[in-house]
Amino acid sequence: MVMFPDVVQRMADNIQWTTDLGNAFLAQESDVMAAAQRMRAKAQGTGNLKTSAQSVVKTETIPQRQSGDHN
User: Fold this and answer.
1) Under 8 Å CB-to-CB from 68, ≥6 apart: which residues?
2) N or C: which end of the chain has fewer CB within 10 A?
3) DSSP letter string over 6-68?
4) Its pTM surpasses 0.90
């Protein structure tokens, strides 16, 4: 979060927005996580997601859950 001070400031300044964001995530967790994975793949494909002194990028393939599985 330190790298995104504007986001931290917005979260602090607008608690209702932060609460709404959290509730939206809880209501659509699988959709949010799928979107994050699509953005990561795109960033990695364009060379914008790579290991650096600050972070390590590791790619793993995890089997898809069956429609009835939870956790």
Assistant:
1) none
2) C
3) HHHHHHHH-HHHHHHHHHHHHHTHHHHHHHHHHHHHHHHHTT-S---SS--------PPPPTT
4) no
Buried b (16+ CB within 10 A) or exposed e, 27-38: eeeeeeeeeeee
Using CA of residue 17, residue 31, residue 48, residue 54, what is the dihedral sign?
Answer: positive
pLDDT tens string 56-71: 988 888 787 776 655 5
Nearest residue to 18 via CA among 33, 30, 8, 28 = 8
> Which structure tokens are listed for 32?
């949010």
Tokens read off for 22 = 């959290």
pLDDT tens profile 2-57: 678 998 999 999 999 999 989 999 999 999 999 999 999 999 999 998 898 988 98
